Structure formats: C-alpha cells, structure tokens
Amino acid sequence: MSLIGRTCALVLVTAAVVACGKTTFMVGYAQDAAPLMAEYSSYAWLSPAPGQAKRPHEDLVGLRIRRTMDSVLNTKGFLRNDSTPDFLVGYHLAYTGDLDRDAVDAYFGFGFGSGEPGADSIPQGTLIIDVVDAAERRLVWRGGADIDVDPRTLDARERNRRIREGVSGILKDFPPSQ
Question: Is 7 exposed, middle or buried (0-12, 13-18, 19+ CB in 10 A)?
Fold first, then answer.
C-alpha cells in the first residue's frame, strides 16, 4: 500500500474510532507520592466526609462500580483491609448531570487543592477514582473516564460493560511507576 493509501486508511480508522465514541481516560497523581504508592499492598473504601448526603446513584450502579473496582484492585495484588489499609479508594460519578469540582473534592474531604488545573465542573457521564494515602490522609492519585451509564438510555448489560471498561482503563497504570 502506498504512503497515500496508508495515510487515508489511518484517517478513516481514526474517524471511525472518534465516531464510535471511544472511551477516553485521564489520570493525574502527586509526583512526590509515586514512591509511596509503590509500597501499597492493601486498601479500604473511603467514607464520605461528615455532613455529605448519600449520592443518588448509590444503588445498583454504585454497587457495580465498587465490585468492579474491588475485582480490578485484587487482580493487581491489592488486598482489601478495612482495619489497617495503605490507601483509601473512592469514586465519583457524574450520573444525571455535571458535578461541581469543589463538591467532588469536598465529598471525601480530599482534593489536589486550588492549584489543580482543569474545569470547574465534571461533565455528566464521567467516573472519577480517587486514591488517598491512609497514613498522610491526602489525595495522591486521581483517574477518570467518560463512561456515561445513564439508565434512561442504556440497558444493564451495556452499563456493566462500560463500568468494567472504565474502571479497568482508569486503573490500568495504577500505581504509577517512579
């Protein structure tokens, strides 16, 4: 195939991937925490900060997200230990509308702080996973993906597929290498 033919094929494949709405993943972490994260072996689930209301999606969708995260973390060798974890994990889901970024940081009581680059809101359909160092009680890693799981437009099978793909993709490179 000529260079022009290969270029045209690449353009067509790229356009098809974009048109199909391929999931995008984004990950950020505190650079000074990478060596710390390399030592992690156990985790527990974060609890909401005092005064935070239960989220509207903490039903079956929330249960599916938590079970998938447990499965992925276990596959990576992390053991759930609710009494003495190395890190705490939680998630946020912009389920039926955009989430205010400050509300996301306040939900568990952790955020990267006002210097964190990005928008003031998190668009509907975004799943965010937070990792907090249990000893230092600070957010050390945050990953996200666009996985829109709105039950008004998707059946259970498609929601489950998107949750599995999203969680696996977000946690693919966790913990980060030094």
Answer: exposed
